[in-house]
């Protein structure tokens, strides 16, 4: 079995301690980014009202409930979203998309067991549904079941998914295992599928940094900041380059911005403590 299809076991990270800390910091993604994958519908009150009008006219249409549930999820109204997905599944027990969507809401509500059951049911109903593999993979990854997560991302990719999360998240696992050549390839693919997303640039930059390619790493971190200047990780990663270059003043400034954005982001807090004073 090749390294492409199985994780290295017991392999040490080749990066410096600073890079290892940053990699650990980039292993999670926020709910908002994943909720956009439920549906393109915005969760605004105007859209909810429009969707409710559709349901009033078609009270037995499971797709209408699925779409409104997606909008509720986007708007952070998780209980309302669950009610709509429940209704969609009552009307159509084989509605695999609704199972996958409900699983994501369960995840954000902290009910991981129900989320896993729903992902499994979606895959049972449609073994070619890439979104369910990606969602379940994220569930496994955050639970520390790295090999199971890898297998699900791999399966989604084998299904020719165009969802950048599959490549990005598999890249994170390769990166965690020190397989930076594969990680770089996956992050680049994720960027090609979603060029306006900052996260893959951060991931690729860290693998560049781990392999000693500081120039490309710096370019990626700067691009991540350009795409979204409100992500603490991006500023902390930029600061890593300044710190490696010996420019503590610029490093401290970037770390400070990261701490301002997220006072609990430990790589930034620790970095600011190391570089404060700028000497």
From TrEMBL:
- Which SMART domains would you find in this protein's record? TPR (SM00028)
**Keywords assigned by UniProt, alphabetized:** Repeat, Signal, TPR repeat
Q: Does the keyword Repeat apply?
A: yes
Q: Where are the TPR repeats?
A: 62-95, 96-129, 130-163, 164-197, 198-231, 232-265
InterPro entries the record matches = TPR-like_helical_dom_sf (IPR011990), TPR_2 (IPR013105), TPR_rpt (IPR019734), Ycf3 (IPR050498)
- One Pfam family, please name it: TPR_1
Show the PANTHER family listed in the entry: TETRATRICOPEPTIDE REPEAT PROTEIN 6, UDP-N-ACETYLGLUCOSAMINE--PEPTIDE N-ACETYLGLUCOSAMINYLTRANSFERASE SPINDLY-RELATED
> What name does this protein carry?
Tetratricopeptide (TPR) repeat protein
State the organism of origin: Aminobacter ciceronei
